[in-house]
Amino acid sequence: MSKLIGKTQTATLAAKVTSFTASGDFIADPSSGLVKYLVVAGGGGSAASGGGAGGYREVTDATFPVIGGNTYPIVVGAGGAAGAPGVETDAGQGSDSSFSTITAEGGGIGGRLGQPGGDGGSGGGAPSGETGGSGNTPPTSPAQGTDGGDGMDASGSLDGVGSGGGGSGGAGVKADLEPNTQPGGPQYQYWVFHKMGDGGTGKVSSITGSNVYYAGGGGGGGSNATGSQSRVAQGGSGGGGTGGPSGPSTGTAGTANTGGGAGGGGASGGGIRGNGAAGGSGIVVISEPKAGTWSAGGVWDLKQAYKKNLEGKWR
To answer: Which H or E run includes 193?
Structure first.
């Protein structure tokens, strides 16, 4: 039988990573004492403006204490509900996610006509003339999110243009006007086009072993944009939904298990408003670094080495 003969081989044991895409129980490994975590709440739902991202809380070093063998309830927050089409019905705030003493706040709602953006983990965007929601509400250190974009300074036929929801890594963008650059006679020179606000960017985490963005804000919805300059507002990296164009049109939902805010619904020039969308659900990830090292010395046959490799202990 083949043998492995040589000096002692020593390696750090592989971390155990547990991801929760729905609520459940985390049972700490008997050897655990300090862990890393990522807790992301559900993203906010949208109406005219983009929903705010769910709160983002993470420790990147194994410094959070747990007791080996103990059970810790995990809550994964749902995304907020969409604002209803055709009537001025509020969108829903995202639900909180939690692990042990750590809670991430749900994302704020994207405001409908005449309504400011909602406060939350990240704030929701606002329609024209209104104020974006406040992020990092309640406050945490480091901050769990950013503010939603304020509404543009206009009214009348422009009142449906939405600003972006805040993301964990950047604030939502305020909607604005951009000059007409299309060719035409003097009668076209004063036309302006609606520039909806993009959602704020999320943050990247490597807790699972891969770089993944979470908690991006939703893009704002459009209104009566015309010509080749019409555009849609992009959701922030990390599952933020895209805003609907001039419509009526439906915004894009936040991506599940990212905490992304929803994209706002687009309105027509006749004041017919499109659907909002739902925010993306949250996620909880816990990484348990294994204590100590594993050493292999002396004589080992290939079967033993293969078994250790399957256990993640042969390097």
So the answer is: strand 192-195
